[in-house]
Design brief:
The complex is a heterodimer of chains A (112) and B (117). In chain A, a hairpin with a 6-residue loop joins strand 9 and strand 10. Chain A has no helices and 11 strands. Chain A is mainly beta. Helices cover 0% and strands 48% of the residues of chain A. Chain A is globular and about 40 Å long. In chain A, strands 2, 4, 5, 6, 9, 10 and 11 form a 7-stranded mixed sheet that branches. A 4-stranded antiparallel sheet of chain A has the order 1-3-8-7, with no helix packed on it. By secondary structure, chain B is mostly beta strands. Helices cover 0% and strands 53% of the residues of chain B. Chain B is built from no helices and 11 strands. In chain B, the strands form 2 sheets. In chain B, strands 2, 4, 5, 6, 9, 10 and 11 form a 7-stranded mixed sheet that branches. In chain B, strands 1-3-8-7 form a 4-stranded antiparallel sheet, with no helix packed on it. The termini of chain B are far apart. The chains are: A mainly beta (112), B mainly beta (117). The interface between A and B is medium-sized, with 25 and 21 residues.
Chain lengths: 112, 117
């Protein structure tokens, strides 16, 4: 199985400040079609996860442009340019390069 | 807008079979290039992908479940299902169903299943 490792596991950010989460995979997620099969999800308290970023760097429908994804191969980053209160929750990366799909441990974002 | 809703017993006895159904509304389970997935999350823990099924019936399962898992689809009812046999307390979790594509992911609200005698 591909192991996904996120860091940090928690961070506390002041509204209006940026935030960054790293996700590394034990194998390359780059497919021969040129796409990296890496997604980012946000799970707000008491809710189911929602997709933020797909294929490494594409914002899902309805996701604010303060969220961005970057990286390729085995090293990826989710950035929030200016954190807002509604961004609090658990962030997960997930690889869909090969089954079984696997998730990172999760990063808890707290708003100061 | 497509919506998914999990249903099934909230309490299952050890060694028995957990059975859940996901009902899809706002879209046909047979349309589009989607696959239909199950994911679970033990309380306070991370997410575990259990497997997926296509409308045509093709499946991919997580080998960690050691052949205990079976997924099926009922296109006439616009539903897909999960069966997990020989459950133990370690299978206690919130179970989510989801519709997945390369550019989208829609999840149900989740249903808590507790394994206890």
């Amino acid at each position: 199985d591909i192991v996904m490792t996120q860091s940090p596991l928690s961070l506390s950010v002041t509204p209006g400040e940026p935030a960054s989460i790293s996700c590394r995979s034990s194998q390359s997620l780059l497919h021969s079609n040129g796409f990296d099969y890496l997604g980012w999800f946000l799970q707000r308290p008491g809710q189911s996860p929602q997709l933020l970023i797909y294929l490494g760097s594409n914002r899902a429908s309805g996701v604010p442009d303060r969220f961005s994804g970057s990286g390729s191969g085995a090293d990826f980053t989710l950035k929030i340019s200016r954190v807002e209160a509604e961004d609090a929750g658990l962030y997960y990366c997930m690889q869909a390069r090969q089954t079984p799909f696997t998730f990172g441990q999760g990063t808890k974002l707290e708003i100061k | 807008q497509v919506q998914l809703q999990e249903s099934g017993p909230g309490l299952v006895k050890p060694s028995q079979t957990l059975s859940l159904t996901c009902t899809v509304s706002g879209g046909s389970i047979s349309s589009g290039s989607y696959y239909w997935s199950w994911i679970r999350q033990p309380a306070g823990k991370g997410l575990e992908w259990l497997g997926r099924i296509y409308a045509g019936g093709g499946t991919n399962y997580n080998p960690s479940l050691k052949s205990r898992v079976t997924m099926s689809v009922d296109t006439s009812r616009n539903q897909f299902s999960l069966k997990l046999s020989s459950v133990t307390a370690a299978d206690t979790a919130v179970y989510y169903c989801a519709r997945e594509a390369s550019d989208s992911s829609v999840w149900g609200q989740g249903t808590l299943v507790t394994v206890s005698s």
